[in-house]
Specification:
457 residues; alpha/beta; Rossmann fold; two-component regulatory system; nucleotide-binding; DNA-binding; sequence-specific DNA binding
Length: 457
Amino acid sequence: MRLLIVGSLNGQLTTATKMAMETGAKVAQVDTGELAMDALRAGQGADLLMVEVSNDIGWLAAQLQAERIALPIVACGLGSDARAAVNAIRAGAREYVPLPPDAKLIAAVLEAVADDTHALIYKDDIMADVIRLADQIAPSDASVLITGESGVGKEIMARYVHRHSVRKDKPFISVNCAAIPENLLESELFGHEKGAFTGAVSRRIGKFEEADGGTLLLDEISEMDVRLQAKLLRAIQEREIDRVGGNKPVKVNIRILATSNRDLATEVRNGTFREDLLYRLNVVTLMIPALRERPADIMELSEHFVKRYADANGVPARPLSDSAKSHLVRQHWAGNVRELENTLHRAVLLANGDEIDVDAIRLPDGSRIDQTVSISSSDPASRAAQVAETVSRNLVGMTVADMERDLILNTLDHCLGNRTHAANILGISIRTLRNKLNLYTQQGVSVAAPGEARIAG
């Protein structure tokens, strides 16, 4: 945990710093929000900003968003200043910590940021084989390509490799190549000099330099434009980068991990991915099986998610009924662990009685899990007949455009509005998905916002 304190915390800086360091956090301090942005641009990484309320938190939150620096803000102020607390939350702070600081409260805030969302939960033998290989190659500096369907946990596996490497005490920096617009990705990776382009008001350190000494994860690397792949290849080969607008190479010491839900060999044949870059990345491959191929993990993860979301929502952690377990194991889980997590989150909120039964386990469209076609069950002929009957009944009379729209919007609902996850499941680029959604919005069609699904009916 890397904590950046902004301000003097009303004279409580030394006490708060000591408390944070006792929890294992690495602490740095600056006096103002402007200096905090300068430090972040210069590559001083942080996982959490603890900001004194006398600073302009709204300005700081806006600057972080404008420069695509994803960091939570915790505001600190005198405990009796209720108005300051409310204003800080409205301005963009996640939490408000009263001063003088309390050791348990500081520890709880840091623990909440470093929560168990990156825990690697497994029980199935097929997944255990993957973990054994990860343990074997983690201590090396070899590049690793992590493959698998969308939602299987590729980033979690990457963090697992980092935690078991010799670089574990150094930064782990993740870049989602699909989520960053093509014209900004080069600057995001390699940084830029002041004046390099319109809006480059100061030097910005890129992710390669921010990860120096540690690990850089290139998430969904198959979405990277082929022209930028050439510059990435040189950076990996030479271990040096050129900032946009710069004229002096910068040496970097990093380990490269990459993920893809596509077959990169096929992308090479299609001309959308460089073969030489694939060879550089693919020193070791960790292929994560789909969730439906590891049934023991379905139950292990289900119980984990039930406990997590029961605790988070202040409701009892009810056990899953035998019928619920049976249907969970038989479900196809096209969205893998991510879909299972969303499903169990809903189930925790909808459950009544002493157990979580099938009536609480519902898909985004509201249908119960026991009322859907279970593609993993029965023999192939029966599965084909069930699917054909369902498709025929639901799609007759629809145009191709209508079917495409419904498929896209239903998948987006399924992913609770997450554009990147939906694009991965649909097998299209994030840019294509955004263009489709913009068109539907212009046509007056309801589109799920991030973190939400459309309300049925």
